[in-house]
Each structure stands twice: as structure tokens, then as C-alpha cells.
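Supplementary Note 3. Input sequence used for the single-chain structure prediction.
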Amino acid sequence: MTASTSTTPSSNYRVNAAPAVDYYTPEQLVVPGTFIPQKDGEVAPKIFQPLKIRGITLPNRIGVSPMCQYSANAEFEPTPYHLIHYGQLALRGPGITIVEATSVSKYGGLSPQDLAIYTDAQAKAFKPLVDFAHAQRHLIAIQIGHGGRKASGQPLYVHLEQVADESVGGWPDKIVAPSALPFRPHGNLPIPRALTIPEIKQIIEDFGDAAKRAVEISGFDAIEIHGAHGYLISEFLSSTSNKRTDEYGGSFENRIKFLLEVIDNIRSKISESVPLFLRFSANENTDAEGAWTIDDSIKLAKIVVEKGVDLLDISSGGNHHKQAARSSFGKSDVPIHEPYSRAIKAAVGDKAIVSCVGGLHADPARVNEFIENGSFDVALVGKGFLKNPGLVWEFADKLDVRVAQARQYEWGFYPAREGIYELIKRTEEFEDKD
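The predicted structure, written as C-alpha cells, is reproduced below.
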């Protein structure tokens, strides 16, 4: 990540346009979110140190976690809403933004208002927001997945765990899963139909094709597989939801087979330089017989890293209706998923990047301490960015360091020459040392 060196001050200095879009927005000479030393020898807190993942380099270790917005059009495509929503984040310096859960199959969406990328037209609809992010020199990824028995639900701002029927664009008679088991017995979600082997193979192809579209048509910088929270992949992983007796059920090795084939298919269809992330629930958070545990996750983590997964995005729960309340698992004095991310990071070491999610927006000093101590490498924040899109800037202020901001915003806080020329000089010196 080397900044432009054509920075000689001039009274008639012309600001070049960003090359990624066909309308004017100023070129960002320094990647927003990059640490700027304010004195000789100043070292960035680790949370503001760059991080290379395959062919990309994050300017810092604060990312935007994928969050469903339930705002897709009737073709499950992004709209101007998404350009505005993700655009405001791209301007404010997170290390990377991960676009919300996007379905790889026609009937895999979490709701009729969720995004999808199972056609080229859908992939093309993402390109304006990806191009805008790139115009700001911002990295942007997409999370792809399949809802399994939780597909065709209502948006969470309407109702939790209620099926969307045909009257609102749903597909309740086409919901599929590893086994014909509802998420909650006698609940509001229907009993899914168990997938056939040919259907499983088709969904595996769907994952790979969606990743290929996302990279080659939309232009995303990285792909995240959604394997958490009780959606299709995590349904295969756990014995509580997978009662199959064929090659995709029974033993641990059989239950992880679907995920491993998804990873192989995606890796075969995207460039070696494109990072592949995997979000999974490290623990089912229930004492139900056969539940997925942190020990299972440690075994899985070691396997998927060898398969080509670069970042392990650690969450938990979502697959069993009797899981413990969030407040009753984990230690009260640490982020809810930190014990899980720490255990998995210890298991994979430097072979993979590990991220953590869940309540990481309140105390940047503590989050930096976890990163320094090796509990995780990247802090993913969701709701904190919804409340405060300028969260990275706030983190920097609280840690008493300076990070680059988009030129459109920074001029109001720093003198023009300091904000452009001296800032670039200092950044280049820091990057040379790195």
C-alpha cells in the first residue's frame, strides 16, 4: 500500500479524480484509516498496524462485520440504499467492510428482502458500491451463504423466527436442510425438506459460482463463507440438526464434508490472490446431545486452513433453539467470543488470521490489548458502526493517535498542507519501515 509521491505543493495544484468511477470524487492519496506518526519513532498500536491477507493489505485491524439490511429489491439486488449505507463506511477508514449475507441460490435467502448473487445481473448490481469503495481506496468483501431451514424468514425488524409466505414473496414450500427438522419444535418456522445428494452437489456449485461472480463481475476484494448461526453450513456441521446416514452425516468427517467441498469449489473458481474468509459458530452454546463444541471448532479450523481459508471469523450459537442466553456464557469481563477466538488462534497460530466479533466497539484500548496479546488479529464490529460510522476515527482519538481520513472530511480538522503533503510524507516513512 504505497501512497502517490506526486505531492509538490502548488498554488494551482489540481486534485486528480479517483480512477475507479466515471464521476468525480477526489483521489485518496493515503488510504483512509492508515496510521500517521506524529513524531519520530512513534509506533502504531497493533490495532492500527497494517495486516496482509493474501493479495490485500488492510490499513488497520478494525473491520465492519456483515449485517443484514433487508433492503433488496424484488430481484434480490442492492439498491441506492446499499450504496449510501456502505459508502458512508468506505469513506471513514475501516480496514475492510464485509457486505451482508448474500444468497448463492434462488431459495437460499434469509428473507425476501435479502441480497442474492446467483445471477450475473445480481452481481452487476453490486458493482457501483464496490467501485465507490475502491474509489476511496477501501477494501470490500462479501459474505455468501444459504439459509437452509432458516431461509424465507421475515426481516428481523418485522418478526423474529417467522416464515415469510408467498403473500410477501416468500417460498415456504421450498425450504431445505440436511434433515427434515425444524429449527424450533412447534415454532413459527416450517419443517424443511431434506436435501438429496444431487441437490447438495448443486448448492456446492452455487457457492463456487457466486464467489466467481463476486470477484470477476462485482469486483469484491475478498469472499466470506457464512457457516455460522444455524444456516445451511452450520446445520450440516452439528449432530443436533444433521441426522443424515449417508456421506454427509454421522461422523465428524462426514458432517464437515459439505463445508470442505464448498471451500474447494470456491478456491477452484477464484484467483489465488483473493482471500477467503469463513465465519462459523465456534460453539453451539447448548448442552443438547450432539451439539457442536469449541473442541469441534478447533479440529475444523486446522482442516479448513489447510484447504485455503485465510481468515477465521469467530462467532457462536444460532443453530439450537435451547442455546444459552448471551449473558450466561463466556466471561463477563471479556468480549463474548474472545475465549473462543483465543482458543482457535492458539490452535492455528500464524497459519491463519483470526477475527472476533461481539461487543468490541466500546473500549478500543481493551480491544487493542486483546490483539496485542494474540487473542485475535482483527476486531469485527457491527452495531457499533451502525451507531457511529466514524468509529475508526473515534478509536484513534481514544488511543491518542492519528489516522488518515478521506480528503473530503479531513480538511475540516487539519490544515490543508498538513492534511495532504506532510501526511503523505509521514505515511511513506512509516510504510518504508514496515
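Residues 1-12 have pLDDT under 50 and may be disordered. The domain at 38-400 is CATH 3.20.20.70 (TIM Barrel).
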